[in-house]
Specification:
Blueprint lengths: L15 H13 L1 H4 L3 E3 L6 E6 L5 H12 L3 E5 L13 H8 L5 E6 L4 H8 L4 E6 L5 H16 L9 E5 L6 H10 L6 E5 L8 H9 L3 E5 L2 H4 L5 E4 L10 H5 L9 H7 L5 E3 L25 H19 L10 E3 L12
Parallel strand pairs: 2-3, 2-4, 4-5, 6-7, 6-9, 7-8, 9-10
Antiparallel strand pairs: 1-11
Helix pairs in contact: 1-12, 3-12, 4-5, 6-7, 6-12
Length: about 350
Amino acid sequence: MEFVGSHILSVDQFDRKGIEHIFAIADSMQPYADRIRITRILQGAILSNMFFEPSTRTRVSFGCAFNLLGGEVRETSEIKASSLTKGESLYDSARVLSGYSDIIVMRHPESGSVAEFASASRVPVINAGDGPNEHPSQALLDLYTIKKELNEKSRSVDGLRIAMVGDLKYGRAVHSLLKLLGLFKDITIHLVSPPDLKTPDDIVQQLKQLGHAVHATDSMEEGIHHVDIVYTTRTQEERFPSQTEADRYKGLFRLNQAIYTEFCEPNTVIMHPLPRDSRSQAQELDDDLNTNPNLAIFRQTDNGVLIRMALFSLVLDITDQIHSHASPVTWFTARRTPNY
């Protein structure tokens, strides 16, 4: 795909060659994320972080990625802090905000809203999640994490066996990741969910048409057996018609160390797009897994900064200039190499 000046709205934009290019750029960003080197290539550039739904990791990591490249970040973190509450249209918001910015990252609770906004924007827009629809950068960082975890075992993504567990109906990270996995070869996918929260049929059919093996079950013990990755997700309670209905599904699938030991292969990697719901009635990923070396959830979050730096680099066409503007870090910095 052509990255320079492009909106990043859907994983449907990517082909395998483009994904591998993003990953190669992400690899090259490691010294900056680890505070070994600094670069000011985006000095003077402004990112508008427009988040109209709650976010911690995505919002902060996009801002961190832009700062690490030398740029400035301006944020709106909820709808009530914007003129959308006064009836302003997405079109008008896009025309105005794109005049203040060099690039915009946007999250919105309605499917298709970010694409609508982007159609009126005068600068590139990156989709940070549009309702239950898509989350392209999360899918990229998840796939990047899968690649790195498998590489540690001298494996590739081709031939991957993965279990997706939890709310697969409303989980936009799941939808986007499944679409990206479809670009690879010989993937086996176990879809573990209650029947009412199953993966959308169009995504399942697409995977099957691409020749991948897809198995659906409501048994977690069955689904997590003989896989390389267990990718679990919380109940997306904000997407349900009522809190009462969402509460019916909390805690149905709980992965803890005892279940992992009994049903998973010894080196099965555990992933989660976060946040994990640590409340007593939920706990889809138990705290007793925190010391399990195969728990990759914090490596995922670290990888998110690398992927988002790579996207900014490609869209703003600075990839070939970053390292020529680099210099050593001059302050004390804690060792950031993961020890988990």
